[in-house]
Amino acid sequence: MQGKDRNRIDWMLIAKYISRTISEFENLRLQNWLKGDPERRAFLEHAQNYYSREDFPLPDEKQIDRIWIEFCGRMKQKRERRVWHWIGRVAAMVILFIGSVWAWRMYPVSSDSLERQQQILPENSPVLLILSDGSSVVLESDEEERTLTDQDVRINQHGKGLVYPANSKKSDTLLNTIQVPQGGEYHLVLSDGTRVWLNAKTRFTYPVAFGEGKRKVRLEGEAYFEVQPGHCGFIVETERMNVQVLGTFFNVNAYPDEKTTVATLVKGKVEVQSGEEKHILQPGEQASRETGEIKVNQVNPFHYIQWKEGYFSFRDNTLSEIMRVLGRWYEMEYEFESSELEEICFFGVLNRNRNMKELLREFEKTGKVRFEYEGNKVRICAGEK
Description:
Layout: H1 2-7, H2 11-19, H3 24-35, H4 38-53, H5 61-77, H6 83-95, H7 113-117, E1 127-130, E2 136-139, E3 146-150, E4 153-158, E5 161-163, E6 175-180, E7 186-189, E8 195-198, E9 202-207, E10 215-226, E11 234-237, E12 242-245, E13 249-254, E14 261-267, E15 270-274, E16 277-281, E17 285-289, E18 295-298, E19 311-318, H8 319-329, E20 333-336, E21 345-351, H9 356-364, E22 369-374, E23 377-382
Parallel strand pairs: 5-7, 10-11, 20-23
Antiparallel strand pairs: 1-2, 1-6, 3-4, 4-5, 6-9, 7-8, 8-10, 9-10, 10-13, 11-12, 12-15, 13-14, 14-17, 15-16, 17-18, 19-21, 22-23
């Protein structure tokens, strides 16, 4: 038993290595493990390749322990010429989680011409920019390049993004707001160089230029931030708690229809605050607040920013939570046949640019649920017995 334990590695170390959130001490542990056997480094490299190019769910520690032990046993029996075939197979098994709840993998699904006419696709409403005087500008995603003006401040639009000029002399009381609709997303660069990605059904308010004091923005919805260091802090205000940083990468989920506001740190350091309560987060930590105290947990942060790369990522989410996420992206209404169905949990990562019926078919493959359609209305029913 002890011999087997020396061969094992904590999956979180590999996950942190792949996501570039590993600490110096953790990296030292991982490097020591890699030195023990040349095949371990090959295993890590192939796991990294699979994770970076495929939309696979993440495994848990027991899963990687079991597969690593199996991997070691097979290595003893294989000649060198067959090593790479098995490593690739095992790496795929590691990344493709087969847990005790349910899991699925995305495969192409063909559909006939009638189904294509009945597809429920992501909503295609335009993004709106509300200028400081209250007027609105439609931001068309196919716009190659144009210049917008707000009180002599020139704002450049490039496709699905806005870039604000640096060193503007305007005060930070001059505010703009971006409204991202259902099924939309948008990117902007603020006047201090901070990059912001906005998810569907998000409202984001920010100064055209930051003044001498703290840089403050307001979020309702979800956004990922890469904050540039500045002479003063950067504060994201939400309904339930605020997030303050100096220079860091993090995600904030603050949708009004969710019970909890969540801040997830990818890189750097942030302070979350609600009233008098404050917490400092380190990379890989997540702060959440519903109505009481702020809770801090260790997570894999890259699970929470998959939306920025074009994926839905679910990790032990209830079907009720999943349908709220899908409802922000697809133009649909939905209802559950029974409340018990709302509590079924799923793991998985799926491309969110697929037609919704094709995507929901992946859930039906588990046998736990099925979906009935009437136009854009979806009824969620128990699976076939």
